[in-house]
Amino acid sequence: MSVMDIFETMEYGPAPEASSPALAWIKERQPFGLFINNQWTKPTSGRYLESVNPATGKSLAQVASGNSADVDTAVAAARRAFETWSQLAGHTRARYLYALARQIQKHARLLAVLESLDNGKSIRETRDLDIPLVARHFYYHAGWAQLMASELPGYQPIGVVGQIIPWNFPLLMLAWKIAPALAMGNTIVLKPARYTSLTALKFAEIVQEIGLPPGVVNVVTGEASRVGEALVRHPDVNKIAFTGSTDVGRSIRRATAGSGKKLSLELGGKSPFVVFDDADLDSVVEGVVDAIWFNQGQVCCAGSRLLIQENIEQLLIRKLRARMEKLRLGDPLDKAVDMGAIVSPVQLREIQRLVEQGVAEGAQKWQPSWACPTEGSFFPPTLFTHVSPASSIAQVEIFGPVVVAMSFRTPEEAVALANNTRYGLAASVWSDNINLALDIAPKIKAGSVWINCTNMFDASSGFGGYRESGFGREGGKEGLYEYVRPAWKTETVRPTAESILIAKDSTTEEEDEVSASDGTRFALPAIDRTPKLFIGGKQVRPDSGYSRDVYDVHGHRIGEVGEGNRKDIRNAVEAAHAARSWSAGTTHNRAQILYYIAENLASREDEFTRRIVQQTNRTYEDAFNEVQVTLSRLFSYAAWADKFEGIVHRPPMRGVVLAMPEPMGVIGVACPEPYPLLGFVSLVAPAIAMGNTVIVVPSQQSPLSATDCYQVFETSDLPSGVVNIVTGERDVLSQVLAEHDDVDAIWYFGSAEGSKRVEFASAGNMKRTWVSNGHERDWLDTVQGEGQEFLREATQMKNIWVPYGE
Ligand code: NAD
Ligand code: MN
User: Fold this and answer.
1) 35-79 pLDDT, tens digit each
2) 115 an active-site residue?
3) Strands (DSSP E) along 467-592, which ranges?
4) What's the distance, Cα to Cα, between the start and end of the chain in Å?
5) Counting Cβ atoms within 10 Å, is residue 511 exposed (0-12), middle (13-18) or buried (19+)?
6) Is 675 buried (19+), middle (13-18) or exposed (0-12) by CB count in 10 A?
7) What is this structure's pTM?
8) How many angstroms separate the CA atoms of 107 and 206, rounded?
9) Phi then psi for 225, rounded to 5 degrees?
10) Chain Cα centroid distance, residue 655
């Protein structure tokens, strides 16, 4: 084509980015080894895997196929490195992170071309989005390394972390994982995705170049079954950070259950893109292009469900089709191309299969008239209309350039349709009415909500899911907590109630009397009070029709409580759901109720003290102290109720990001055995302070302090159903809670075995778990027994992006 021809036709000419420097870089180094202890080593297996260019289907490089022996070596190297890396001053680590950021910028074009060659994504995106964001993540987290000591006092690194990443944003996912982990003083074994290891290997070279101490970052390439699983199961790995599919996330949840490994999961999505009739439709069309055709739709938070207000549906679909005709698909290295290749033939076939299924289910498929290249893995932008909300293309993550359109009439319908998914990663809301948009944003269950924009990311703003999109956040201050633990957790554990129990001198006491510290003797509470279960604000008989005896430490029967079962738990979950308007009330009101509970409990402090004495045989003084700490704890969470707030982020754009902690929803709580009152209140108070509703299984041995709270709750204006209490066998009942699909999180404070069962059972709906793994905490201590750790477990962050300006 001559310049004159181009001028005449106004056609795009080819504008290829040169691939030769990247190809030369590959050629000099391949076959690529594993990167362990800052050295390139041969894989134990002696085998190599082929990395292919998806745009041509031709081989690009040979990459080491690691196995569990290699994982062992890498973990050992990371463990050794942890000794010194974790002890460095924050400033020193900040310098290393800064050096990584600088070096990434210096090699930006090589990284962009490598990424495009290996993954098939367009150079426009790798150059302008992936690689700049990678550098930004390292800069941002250099800052957190610098500030860790002052901004995260009382926290320490976790240790060796295993990080497993997908192929859709190979280097960006690496950065999201490695930057915060390094900043907080951890060491790393990273497993890149099978199809896309090359930029991680270039990153390893950068690690060497800047002189990061050996063993701090290790990269083990290979297959999921050989490397990924070995990492997940390795006993010396303290945390797994995973990004990938929900199915694999679920299997990792099960495999790590009870291991004590910390876990964060960034999983799939089926994110809604909601368009109201007053939206600027030309911006909407460009928004849809970014939402679903960015990275060929291989984006976990892709806006793959287009929800349109009915009266503008036809108009928007027409505009969208016209725009689709003009999209350019082809050689990813062509700078004027919008869409590149699908990562692999396997992924392409999966997209084709789901699209065929959509057609078979009766939806209408539309694709532009132009043809895709026949060489390599390409799939055209695709729009489905006449989609039924229950059909598979409306529910299953396609992970390709396919959008399904549906319509709604009212804002309420829009919210219901948006939430009609098991996922909850992201959402876009389009309207020129800011009141409407900001009203809808909190109602959609998703970790990120973009108002009049989409697919916006920045290191300052956390990213991660609700529901089956996983748990944990990457980016923002909230992301740092995925890589630290409270300092006290590895210190020698202080004496717990168990040892207090053993230390008691019980011989001096008469059977049915106890003595106060001043020597006065008093009778124990009468036996005949038989508390029922507390569900939906009412005392109800257990479904089983059975009661269980409660004994004191001498084996004397001191009372009975209801024997709760599966049915009672189900009723309690229903009641907790019915009470969800609790979260819509004001934080001021929740604080008031917590104070009121404290007030009502204080007026009965003697009775509550005696109850503790009766159940545990501790001294009156000791039990009295437990009641006083309980009152203080209620005050703490009343105080926090209107103070645990979000942040306004300032990412590099015109606009703000509102990071808002939202309640988890319905939380199942299994209380610790010791401290029958304090253990119960220490968990219930932060949960309800943050707007959750709870189903609580009290201490199994000593449930009477919890059941005595019924009357306190009834007289404290606590709405029915906010706190539900089911007594009985704690491990059996918490298992039922863990399996329940309408429970959003579960807290379990009991045995290691019970913790494992709860974590395993939670994988069904991927509910977030918080378990004690059989370790006691000192509930009397304000560092261990209360504070922000509890509030973070009670909430999840939503980041709402609000750009401004005309
Ligand atoms: P995948 O789950 O198959 O693989 C992800 C990574 O896990 C790969 O490195 C793979 O080798 C490894 N892996 C697979 N099975 C494993 C196992 N049993 N044990 C340990 N490791 C194992 O996902 P994928 O196809 O590579 O990526 C696509 C998926 O990732 C999509 O579902 C997408 O939604 C999700 N994703 C989520 C996010 C997010 O932030 N939430 C970001 C990108 C991608
Ligand atoms: Mn590849």
Assistant:
1) 999 999 999 999 999 999 999 999 999 999 999 999 999 999 999
2) no
3) 470-471, 484-486, 513-515, 521-523, 533-535, 538-540, 547-551, 557-562
4) 40
5) exposed
6) buried
7) 0.90
8) 9
9) -70, -20
10) 25
Active site (annotated) includes residue 151: no
Spatial CB neighbours of 619, under 8 Å, sequence gap ≥ 6: 504, 517, 613
Task: Tell which residue, 304, 674, 289, has the closest CA to residue 497.
Answer: 674
Burial class of residue 369 in the structure, from the number of CB atoms within 10 Å of its CB (0-12 exposed, 13-18 middle, 19+ buried): exposed
Find tokens 């876990």 and name the residue: 263
Cα 189 to averaged position of ligand 2 atoms, centre (Å) = 21
Specify the residue for token string 């973009």.
Answer: 450
Transcribe 684-753 into DSSP letters. Answer: HHHHHHTT-EEEEE--SS--HHHHTHHHHHHTTTPPTTSEEE--S-HHHHHHHHHH-TT--EEEE-S-HH
pLDDT digits 0-9 by tens, 143-157: 999 999 999 999 999
- Nearest atom in ligand 1 to the alpha carbon of residue 248 is 2
Closest approach atom of ligand 1 to CA 268: 34
Ligand 1 atom at minimum distance from 193 CA:
9
- Residue 391 tokens read as 């059909």
Q: State residue 7's pLDDT score.
A: 78
Radius of gyration in angstroms for the set of CA atoms belonging to the chain, rounded to a whole number: 29
Q: Cα of 67 to ligand 2 centre, how many Å?
A: 20
Q: How confident is the model at residue 498 (pLDDT cuts 50, 70, 90)?
A: very low
Which residue, among 730, 740, 757, 753, has the nearest Cα to 253 in the 3D structure?
A: 757
Length of the chain measured in residues:
806
In tens, the pLDDT along 670-718 reads 999 999 999 999 999 999 999 999 999 999 999 999 999 999 999 999 9
| Alpha carbon distance 533, 342 (integer Å) | 56
Q: Which two tokens stand for residue 172?
A: 């960006």
Contacts 24+ apart (CB under 8 A), 316-320: 316/275, 316/281, 316/284, 316/285, 317/383, 317/385, 317/405, 319/281, 319/282, 319/285, 320/285, 320/288, 320/383
Tell me, in angstroms, the distance from the centre of ligand 2 to residue 199's CA: 10
DSSP H helix total and E strand total for the chain: 30, 33
Pocket of ligand 1 (CB under 6 A): 164-168, 191, 193-194, 224, 228-229, 232, 243-245, 248, 251-252, 266-269, 300, 397, 399, 425, 465
Tokens of 223: 């297959």
Q: Which of 125, 229, 300, 474 is an active site residue?
A: 300
122 token code pair: 């367009």
User: Residue 20 to residues 110, 333, 642, 696: CA-CA distances in angstroms?
Assistant: 10, 12, 59, 63
Ligand approaching nearest to the C-alpha of 223: 1
